[in-house]
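check this:
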Amino acid sequence: LLKHNHYFGTWMPYWEVGVHSITLGKFMLHEGETYREAKQVKDVLASRDAMFRYCSFESANLEGGDFDDVFISCEFRDLDFYWGMFNLALFFNCKFERCTFRGTSFAGCRFMESTFADCRFLKDNLAAPCDAPDTKLFACSAENCEGWNELFDNRVP
């Protein structure tokens, strides 16, 4: 049910399934779910080896956390991440709206065909900025985002 995609460097689904959550060997697939409360958002994002497809994450303030999941056609709205660590996460066709990232790391992430609107990438309380070492952007766009150019080294999204 999973096929390694060498272009993206990760395992990707190649089936259509009509259930909300299923276990596929190493991955837990969450499909079509909406997560709204801070604890619920943080708990589900902190799960290891998860794949989210058509999910929404909304209206939560999150401090800390290590997120290394796969997100396909997901939406992130009105989220405030403080010291979050997105390590090797994959975002394909995702939308980020009105999200704030303070001192957040996006180490080794891949963003493909994703959009950012009215997002802010800010320093934390110790004046440490967000960082994105070894992160790649493919066909992404950003509109009205504070700190975008500094984070992604003035790369054209």
